[in-house]
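Renewal narrative, Specific Aim 1. Our central claim is that a sequence can be written position by position from structural information alone. The example that follows is taken directly from our test logs and has not been curated for this report. It begins with the structure tokens describing the chain, in the order in which they were read.
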């Protein structure tokens, strides 16, 4: 049996939660304000777990949590944050301050039972960073979304913020990997130092080493002076290694050595320089698969994959689509345009689109319609440019999958996908599909039969 302190000013919610918890065999203390809760915690009464509402009459739950963390003897108290309205910020903040979990109301009995069981089972140790000062600046990157999947990502980021461990962010192009890395940096204790990003896929192989580790004067033709690399630039801060899956094998070995030995050797030098960076790597590739195919070093993979964070494709978290769309419309409006709203038909269209380019595609689409739509409301027709490609035609497939196939098979797949797309776009009208494809109707029939599409 544990003692649970419930802090919530909503009487009905607090009492029903108290009843549930009492029913599970625990004893309850109730408080209706942040100050009352803190007063109780300053006393000697045992408290094993705190259920904390975020919107309290006298103070914000996050402030209460900060004060609890500063209280002697209560640093490791298990705290479950409850809120009627979860935001990206309050989720990440709560987890960063070592909250055990962050739940949105209403909360079911099973969830509570599960939680109390886990809390009983795990001794938590939390290290907390100092409180961040600024959370309302609009230029601050935000990882928005209320889907369960994105809430999980927000929680992982909040937890990862208290350590210096390497984070590997995976997900399709446009899912928010870079935003996630920036948000992580901004809530970590390194936030006052640099966030330095390097796109490993964009830099020619022979320049990568000098880009990452720097070089000394005379190291190669054109090296007219000493130049610090990205590792040195990120000292005290975060180094974001984007598209790490595209790093050539030779550089993988050098990067591994740098991470293991915590030093880099600038090109042309023999003096190792100590490094102090937190590494966050990202890739749209399946690194575990690349390891199997020997295109990515297994030892480096394990070094990077200390805290894995997976950003699911947008089509797998439809709950995020409309809120993100509205957010992007609001941003565009803030840039000087009028604020446009979405009609029910437009929302339906957004929800049925497959979003192969994920959040980036959604953002671009919202910018485009807000410029092109004349009226105050965006209609279904305004979004007609969103045409679903068949999965085989996704951009990521073309780059990642198709090019790796034997040529005849790649051609076959592309042909099949093009035909399927033409049929979708023409709503099954074969004559029109053939015209779109630039082949004769007869030839289309032959192919339909061959691919068993007819
Ligand atoms: N959850 C999110 N909330 C707000 N903006 C997002 C979110 N995810 C992605 N974006 C926006 O979508 C675009 C692509 O995100 P980015 O992080 O560059 O994706 P990736 O690195 O995975 O290709 C950026 O403009 C970014 O601001
Ligand atoms: Mg990116």
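The sequence written for that structure reads:
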């Amino acid at each position: 049996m544990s003692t649970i302190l419930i802090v919530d000013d909503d009487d009905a919610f607090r009492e029903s939660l108290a009843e549930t918890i009492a029913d599970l065999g625990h004893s309850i203390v109730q408080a209706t304000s942040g100050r009352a809760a803190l007063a109780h915690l300053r006393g000697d009464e045992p408290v094993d777990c705190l259920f904390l509402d975020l919107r309290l009459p006298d103070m914000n739950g996050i402030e209460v949590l900060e004060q609890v963390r500063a209280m002697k003897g209560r640093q490791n108290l298990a705290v479950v944050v409850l809120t009627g309205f979860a935001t990206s910020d309050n989720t990440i903040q709560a987890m960063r301050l070592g909250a055990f979990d962050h739940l949105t109301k209403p909360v079911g009995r099973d969830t509570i039972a599960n939680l109390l069981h886990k809390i009983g089972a795990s001794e938590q140790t939390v290290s907390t960073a100092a409180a961040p000062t600024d959370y309302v600046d609009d230029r601050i990157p935000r990882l928005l979304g209320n889907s369960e999947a994105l809430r999980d990502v927000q929680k992982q980021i909040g937890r990862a913020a208290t350590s210096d461990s390497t984070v590997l962010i995976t997900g399709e192009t446009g899912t928010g990997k870079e935003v996630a890395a920036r948000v992580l940096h901004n809530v970590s204790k390194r936030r006052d130092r640099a966030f330095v990003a390097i796109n490993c896929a964009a830099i020619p192989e022979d320049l990568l080493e000098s880009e990452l580790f720097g070089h000394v004067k005379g190291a190669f033709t054109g090296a007219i002076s000493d130049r610090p690399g990205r590792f040195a630039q990120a000292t005290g801060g975060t180094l974001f290694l984007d598209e790490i899956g595209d790093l050539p094998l030779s550089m993988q070995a050098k990067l591994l050595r740098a991470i293991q030995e915590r030093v880099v050797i600038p090109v042309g030098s023999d003096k190792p320089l100590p490094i102090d960076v937190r590494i966050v790597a990202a890739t749209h590739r399946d690194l575990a698969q690349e390891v199997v195919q020997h295109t990515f070093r297994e030892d480096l993979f394990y070094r990077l994959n200390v805290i894995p964070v997976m950003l699911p494709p947008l089509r797998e978290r439809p709950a995020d689509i409309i809120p993100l769309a509205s957010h992007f419309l609001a941003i565009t409006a803030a840039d000087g345009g009028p604020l446009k709203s979405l009609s029910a038909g437009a929302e339906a269209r957004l929800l049925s689109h497959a979003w192969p380019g994920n959040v980036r595609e959604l953002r671009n689409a919202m910018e485009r319609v807000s410029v092109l739509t004349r009226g105050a409301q965006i209609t279904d027709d305004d979004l007609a440019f969103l045409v679903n490609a068949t999965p085989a035609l996704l951009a990521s497939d073309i780059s990642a999958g198709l090019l790796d196939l034997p040529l005849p098979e790649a051609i076959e797949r592309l042909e099949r996908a093009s035909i399927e797309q033409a049929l979708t776009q023409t709503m099954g009208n074969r004559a029109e599909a053939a015209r779109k494809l630039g082949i004769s109707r007869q030839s289309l029939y032959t192919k339909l039969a061959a691919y068993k599409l007819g």
